[in-house]
Structures are given as C-alpha cells and as structure tokens.
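Task 17 of the worksheet. Students: predict the tertiary structure of the chain below and write it out as structure tokens. Keep your answer in the requested format; marks are given for formatting as well as content.
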Amino acid sequence: MKDYYQILGVDRNASEDDLKKAYRKLALKHHPDRNPGDKASEETFKEINEAYACLSDAGKRSNYDRFGTAEGAGAGFDFGAGGFSSTNFGDIFGDVFGDIFGEFSGRRRTRPTKGEDLRYDLDISLHEAVSGTEKEITIPKWENCSGCGGTGSQPGKGPVACQHCRGTGQVRIQQGFFTISKTCGKCGGHGKIITDPCAECRGQGKVRKDRTLSLKIPAGVDTGIRLKVTGEGEPGTYGGPHGDLYVVMNVAPHPFFKRKGNDILCEVPISFVQAALGAEIEVPTLEGPAAIKVPAGTPSGKVFHLKGKGAPRLGGYGKGDQFITVFIDVPKKLTPRQKELLMEFAELSGEEPSKNFVDKIKDIFNHKEQAR
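Model answer:
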C-alpha cells in the first residue's frame, strides 16, 4: 500500500495548506517540463498527483486514514499504456500553480483585460478645499491610435491569422505523458500578426498623449482624499475597458488657519485693555470677518466658538465649527506716559513692578511658611 503522506513528505495531521505547499514544491521539482526524458521523475510526478488527489479530498482522506485505501482515490487517473489522463487534474494543478506552466486548453490568456489605473496628486489651497472648486489637469497617458483605430495595422490592411497557432493564440506542447497549452510565442497570444504596421503608432495600436481634464472638486475635501474619475486610466487590452484615474488631494498649509477634521482653528491677539475691560472684536473666518464679544477679565488662552464656520462635511450635511484662541499681545515699546499710567495701575493694584519673577515666587513661598 502506498503511503501518500510519505510521498508528499508531510505528517498525518498536515493541514490543507501544508498539503498544498508540499505538493507545489514536489510538483515543481519533478514536472516533466523541467525533467525532459527523465522516466524516474515522470513516475514520481504521477505518484505525487495521485497522493494529492486523495489527501486534498476530505472524504477520500477520511477513508484513507481509516482503512488505508480510498474508494475512488485514483478515479480519473489512468496510468496505463495509453498515457496519463485526468478528469479533475486540470482543476487541481491550476488551483495550486495558477499560470506557472500555462493555461489548460479551453481557457485563453487573451481575454479582455481592464487597463491600468492612474494616480494624479493635486495641490489645492485651504479655501479651495473648504469651498470647492474646478481645476484643469493634464495627464500623460496611452490612447488608442487614431490612425489605425487601435488595430496597429495600416488602414484597410488588418492583422492576419497567426500560422504558428492557427489563430488560437495558444500552442499545445507534449512533454512525455503530459500535454499543456502555452501562449504562442509568435503572436504573443493575440492569435493574429500585424504584417503592415501603422506608421503613426508603429504597430502598437496606442500612442502617448497628454489629456486635459476638467475636475469638479467638492467642498470639504482634505489631504489624502481620493477622487475617482471612471474610465480615464490606461486603455484595456483585447477590447477591455479603460482603467480609472484617482486624483489624490494635497491641501497646502495656511499661514493663519489650521484644520482639524471639519473644524477650523486660529489664534487672535487682543490688547491688555480689551482683555481687562472687555470688547467686541472682529475675527477672520474662511467666509469673511465675524464679530465676537470678549468679556471683561478674559485670560490669555481663552477659546471662543463660532458654530458652523468650519469646513463642510464631505458627502454629508452641515459644517464643522471654528475655534478662536485669544492671547494678550504685550506691547514691546511704551511711551513715557504709557509707562506712567501702568505704574499707577500697578500701585493701585498693590503690585510692585520693580520686583522680578523670582522675587515674586519667593514672596509666595514666604507667605505660605508664615501661614503654617
């Protein structure tokens, strides 16, 4: 009795992934394409496939583990004089190897394929991001040749069927007991050959051109947001659709405003008099100036809130808010009269302007010690 686990080099508790990895490794090593004329490798390859066909099937594996045999374990495989054939081998081999050794008959590589997607990084200002705008962009891309309509041949002289593969785009290769289909090397899988190439595109069927597009940027976009423009990517192959264009937003920093999500942040200076006595001041917003009331005794760092003055919610309703942080702007130069008035104010407030910060800290600690 053959030990299928030993043939694949795995233990009896091997998972499906373990079986597949072991089969892939051994099949690559002993495949007839890599060992032409090697009968030993051919026999080993047969055993590997027989073992994997059994152990990859849950029902057959269960019977094999219990009774040492699996009814139908070799079903679909014929290793007689007529050579190797299989009703399910194409599915097994294709599932593990994909296109490594070419596709099996009945499946073509020349199916319509969507074109490649393109990316364009677009720089916009904060005002444009918040308000929305329209932009024109120019992108270099491949376009179907207007001279030949994308066929690659001179007008009136279309491609002819490839004689090597008889127009199928595939050639069948016999390797010992095994027959596979591969992409035709003469026509590249197209099934046709261009005998009179177009002078404009030199037979490629495509030309490189700059395309200008007008984009509508919705209000509320932010850095990293991608806008999809359907069908503006590279053209597809074999009649497949164009890819898409993704425009990625990059919002430039603003010298005054900062954005946090849909909220807008800024800092506004106020004078000592405005902070002490209170005032109504005008502050900038992205929509224009707005007035806020600064109450008397406002400390530096106080935050004021303007509802609905932020960025629109992209794809939703409403807007964010604006937050204004005020700070007291201390004048760097004072007139003699201003100094005189401030000294008088300090005296009336019980302050000693001549004391530096360290002296004031010492006074605070001395006061605490006396209070104990």
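Marker's comment: Residues 258-328 form a domain with the HSP40/DNAj peptide-binding domain fold (CATH 2.60.260.20). The longest strand covers residues 133-144.
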